[in-house]
Records
---
Amino acid sequence: MQAEVEITGLGQAGEGVGRHEGLVLFVPGAVPGDRCLVEWEHGRKRMARARLLQVTQPSPDRVAPRCPAFGVCGGCQLQAIGYDRELSEKRRIVEDALRRIGHIDVRVPPTIGSGEAYGYRAKVSWPIRQGREEPRIGLFAQESHSVVEQDSCDVLAPPLRRLPELLRQGMRDLSLTAWDGRSGLLRHAVARRARTGEVILTLVATAPEPRLAQLAERLMAAMPELRGVALSLHDGQGNRVLGGPAQMLAGEGEIEETILGLRFRVGPTSFFQVHPAAAERLFATVLAWAGAGEGREALDLYTGVGVLALLLQRAGYQVRGIEYDEEAVSFARRNAQLNALAASFVPGDAQEADMPVPRALLTLDPPRGGAPRLAERLAADGPERVIYVSCDPATLARDAATLVAGGYSVGRVQPFDLFPRTAHVETVAEFLR
Ligand SMILES: C[S@@+](CC[C@H](N)C(=O)[O-])C[C@H]1O[C@@H](n2cnc3c(N)ncnc32)[C@H](O)[C@@H]1O
């Protein structure tokens, strides 16, 4: 089937969304405001994925993508949309999800943008795959596991752009093989850069091959900002990036970032926001909503290396943080000492942990799947204020519905753009008993 449709919004994966005779069409490559000719499989009743055949009238918000790999590489999806429109679409995505999935009608304010929409990405996982002759190091293509090599990726923090070629050279010189789906040595390289300029790299490999230490030494000699290279072993199948706990191959196992004046040591594999400057705006909002702690207790779930927990502790709360990654917990404890703040950190599963819930405040920042069982528990017996930091509007909306059914009202909701040029949207939402 073919039709000319008007694109009126963006889907979860950054595709354009249009409608034709009651059918919702998801059109990769189309931009809100475009009119375009599209084609889809006959017989679909409610929704279909459609192919963009021709843009018949471009949107006033259509811009030329900066990256030659745009449309092929799966790293970012929104380079063809002006940044203001990206922000307004992200606002609408949050409002729509709350209404459609959560049955919650709130007016969501404009998305707080990130300042830098390019050159910001401070963490990246490059798959390493065996090509016909050479290893390929880049990002996965859209909806595929083939690797697109684009060393001058504009979204990435500039110093990180040097690493893929240094890795290729090192692998070539040391005759190291790449993963081909069943065998081969190196399968991923995960890099993180802090605003101090320090970089840390984790190599994910199938075996503790001694030449990996040589590779690590070479990389450190070629890149002075590289503080350390770690190894994580992973010889299984599946799409998980990291394997076992990181062991150091060379250099130091941590770098330092600052957030709103506090210092955070971060290890090779623990979570840290990819756009620290934009994340500061989000954390400042949570602090403003939480207000002065005045000695009251707070619980920070999914605490990572303790960023929000320590900011809240500085604001006068007595904070306990829960996190299930043991590396992150030990960094969180050290970060408390480093900043002379008395927050405590406990390893555990935030959805299962048998923790007393404080009366004043609970904050949570779960991964994309959200926290459905925790939401049920809070609905039955939760604190006066819950502040939910979410990286997926759909699971936020689902969990929000559970909280509302349990007697909470929705307070403020604020979307943030922490991952410009990609379909990711971050939201902070407040729930009041
Ligand atoms: C989105 S990150 C947030 C980290 C932190 N709030 C920050 O901004 O730096 C989610 C964190 O939750 C942790 N995590 C994932 N599932 C968990 C669970 N079931 N229980 C506890 N922590 C979990 C991850 O290891 C990760 O550190």
---
Amino acid sequence: MAEIKITVADDGPYVIEGGVNVVDQDGDSYEERDVIALCRCGQSDSKPFCDGSHRTAEFSSSPRASES
Ligand code: FES
């Protein structure tokens, strides 16, 4: 099984590396890629994917694992 890595980008999306299959509520798949970025700010016009809108929205969130 391939290793999957999810990075919580500072002030940005969840970046997922490792070829995951993202499906909608109906079970239909989006285009599969080796690296994807899922919107974390809620401002993307391409949800569930990041379209860079977090920058203009000045989204701010930089959590660290050591804080949990
Ligand atoms: S995290 Fe990039 S558009 Fe929301």
